[in-house]
Design brief:
This protein is of the alpha+beta class. It is built from four helices and seven strands, in the order H-E-H-E-H-E-E-E-E-E-H. Helix 2 crosses helix 3. 24% of the residues are buried.
């Protein structure tokens, strides 16, 4: 697991995030040569690296939801200063005993509670925030 975390973090450091409006995904070779790519490009690169190492890996896409924290952090960043939802891509790798684990090479973090693989309607998000 430590190796996977380090690989994910190194891609985040070495591949500059670039908003690309063109459809499709760059090849891993293009992403490495350019040292930049969209979230889908860096995720596809990670999928191919993991498969090359013999691990089961898949490309995942959906939504990234970031909500303002209800309470400010006392010992670190509190996150975003405004709520937002955006399309996003990440990689998932199958680890026996743990199942599919998401890695986000754009941020260098594990894909967590803010990533959703299914469509989420904005009205439902607003409703959840108003109930909290």
């Amino acid at each position: 697991m430590d190796f996977l975390v380090e690989l994910n973090q190194s891609l985040s450091r070495d591949i500059r995030y670039l908003i690309r409006m063109e459809p499709g995904v760059q090849t891993p070779e293009e992403t490495l040569a350019n040292k930049s790519g969209s979230c889908r490009d860096s995720s596809w690169l990670l999928v191919q690296l993991l498969r090359h190492l013999g691990l089961a890996a898949r490309f995942a896409s959906g939504y990234l939801v970031q909500l303002v924290a209800d309470v400010k952090s006392l010992d670190g960043p509190s996150g975003t200063d405004h709520d937002f939802t955006d399309l996003h891509a990440w990689c998932e790798v199958y680890l026996p005993g743990a199942g599919w684990i998401g890695f986000d090479p754009t941020s260098g973090l594990l894909a967590g509670e803010g990533t959703f693989r299914w469509p989420v309607r904005r009205s439902r998000l607003r409703q959840r925030r108003s109930q909290a």
